[in-house]
Amino acid sequence: MLTRIDHIGIACHDLDATVEFYRATYGFEVFHTEINEEQGVREAMLKINETSDGGASYLQLLEPVREDSAVGKWLAKNGEGVHHIAFGTEDVDGDSEAIREKGVRVLYEEPRNGSMGSRITFLHPKDCHGVLTELVTSAARACRSDQAG
Ligand code: CMX
Ligand code: CO
């Protein structure tokens, strides 16, 4: 079950300048930064609020590390802006399979590594009314279901 907006992914040319905009304008601080080579991004997570499912909602600021990455290609075509939304779930495997069975293209056979040790997958934007949609199981939850399984 999808139980929160985990994050909104925002593509930018200059991560440091964009982080500074969100700090100076709204007072949002960086909660976490990392480079995800597989996704081709340098990213900053800004925590906005905690959620009733025990998780949290973030802004994910994304700067491409390669021009041919998903974010690099998107920036070249569209310029800066909202790139994707991400829903949080305790069970990215089960939920993505159930969504695949409804005829929506899930981009990965198996969830991959996301921010802060999470497991993520994506749904094709053309099957989601133009919205690139990510599903996320956070590290604490992924760990818990590993132990249970
Ligand atoms: N939102 C909405 N539509 C999008 C989109 C986006 N973010 N990215 C691409 N599209 C649309 C394009 O506009 C294009 O539409 P038209 O054919 O009408 O022009 C179509 O999808 C195909 O786009 P493309 O530019 O040819 O790009 P690709 O097909 O090579 O890649 C996608 C698109 C979704 C498969 C690719 O971006 C992808 O694999 N995304 C998932 C991974 C990702 O985004 N990683 C970065 C974030 C990491 C993180 O969140 O941690
Ligand atoms: Co994301």
Question: Can you walk me through this structure?
Answer:
The chain is 28% helix and 38% strand. With 149 residues, the protein is of the alpha+beta class. It has one domain (2-148): 2,3-Dihydroxybiphenyl 1,2-Dioxygenase, domain 1. Strands 2-3-4-1-5-8-7-6 form an eight-stranded mixed β-sheet. Residues 7, 9, 60, 84, 86, 134 line the site of cobalt (II) ion (CO).
Biggest β-sheet description: 8 strands, mixed
* Structural class based on helices, strands and sheet pairing: alpha+beta
Radius of gyration: 15 Å
Number of helices, where a helix is a run of at least 4 consecutive DSSP H or I residues:
4
Number of domains: 1
What structural keywords apply?
single chain, 149 residues, alpha+beta, 2,3-Dihydroxybiphenyl 1,2-Dioxygenase, domain 1, 8-stranded mixed β-sheet, 4 helices, 8 strands, binds carboxymethyldethia coenzyme *A, binds cobalt (II) ion
Structure at a glance:
By secondary structure, this protein is of the alpha+beta class.
Explain the layout of strands and helices:
Elements: E1 2-11, H1 15-26, E2 30-36, E3 41-50, E4 56-64, H2 70-78, E5 81-89, H3 92-101, E6 112-113, E7 119-123, E8 133-137, H4 139-148
The chain binds carboxymethyldethia coenzyme *A (CMX) and cobalt (II) ion.
